[in-house]
Write a structure and sequence with these properties.
The protein has 153 residues and is α/β, with parallel strands linked by helices. The protein is 37% helix and 18% strand. The protein has a single domain, classed as HUPs (Rossmann fold, 3-Layer(aba) Sandwich), CATH 3.40.50. It has a 5-stranded parallel beta sheet with strand order 3-2-1-4-5. The relative contact order is 0.23.
Length: 153
């Protein structure tokens, strides 16, 4: 008996995770699913960079608060939610830290995945101009096949 193939499903905290999961389930019904979410590294900032009060702007973690284990666990929780929502008992979840495309490709290669499934985000030209597409990087850099679940809109 052969082991089922592993499919890496890249998820973020939006509806794209559901689209990616549905695409993976329809294309690879007998595969093992491995859900992964990547936390981006916070740029290091010198002490006192936020002024005399030392308060970081909303959404930016102060350097002293950075804890890779907590960050990785937080990312794993996002992946675990998607894994739980898929209803497959063999699904696993991993949290990664780094640049998303690089981290997802490295994870896919290291776990022996036969494909990476990602969702497309419908973005206008202005948003594409200012926001980098992780999906584009994965498609361009991945040594293994990439499946893109389209945005229904």
């Amino acid at each position: 008996m052969t082991n089922p193939a592993t499919i890496l499903i890249a998820v973020d905290a939006d509806e794209g995770a559901k689209r990616a999961t549905l695409a993976a389930a329809s294309l690879f019904p007998d595969a093992r699913f491995r859900f992964a979410h990547v936390a981006r590294p916070v740029p290091l900032t010198p002490p006192g960079a936020y002024g005399p009060a030392g308060v970081a702007p909303v959404g930016v973690a102060a350097v002293d608060d950075l804890d890779p284990a907590k960050t990785k666990e937080s990312a794993r929780a996002v992946a675990a939610q998607a894994a739980n929502d898929c209803g497959r008992p063999d699904a696993t979840a991993v949290g990664l830290i780094g640049e998303p495309a690089d981290a997802l490709i490295e994870e896919a290669v290291s776990c022996g995945a036969v494909a990476i499934v990602v969702s497309a985000h419908d973005r206008g030209w202005v948003e594409r101009l200012f926001h980098h597409s992780v999906r584009d990087d994965i498609e361009r850099l991945s040594p293994i096949p990439v499946v893109v679940a389209p945005d229904p809109s």
